[in-house]
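Subject: Sanity check before I submit

Could someone independently write out the structure tokens for this chain? I want to compare against mine line by line before I put it in a report. The sequence has 192 residues.
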Amino acid sequence: MAVSDLIVSPAKVYFGAVGATPPLTTVTYGTAWAAAWTRIAETAAPVTISYEYDVIDYDIQESLGPVNRKKTAERLKVETTLAAIDLDQLALSWQGAVTNVAQAAGVAGYEQIPGGDIVTLQQYAWGFEGQTAGGFPIRFFIWIATAIAGAPLVFGKAVQTGIPLQLQGINDMSKAAGVRLYRVDRILTAVG
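---
Independent answer below. Compare away.
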């Protein structure tokens, strides 16, 4: 194992419209991604990514154990807590739209998210960027995901209030089998 394989890095979180093209492998760590991507708040908790799948075993009477196995379902989930309370980011998690009202005579400026009884979940492409010990980016892309509130929104005198965010991946059927859910890019060297 090389020290450059070690990763201790915060994750930058991006989202974009479904179909947004990931940055080229020539884009260095920390460089802004293309305009199709929006970087959102810093994270107050680590980003955790889990890929799970169900299987079916092929069993025969002549063997005590399975003789083959295949996947029958798969799930991709990402969880974190966004560090700042920003209603645009809360709307990503809670599936709403922010309304802004400007300050005027006798009216305070404010923003709000009305909510409830929303059936359709908003779909976005999501990207995450960290940095290896060698200084190169490692990026994780989910082609399509819906965001849901991953945990309660907590206010308290001994806790930092953040926006819990959980993403659940959806297969992009416009892509070939085997590449429909996610992609990971780990940049190994500088551009030659």
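---
OP: Matches mine. For the report I'm noting this point. The CA atoms of residues 14 and 39 lie 4 Å apart.
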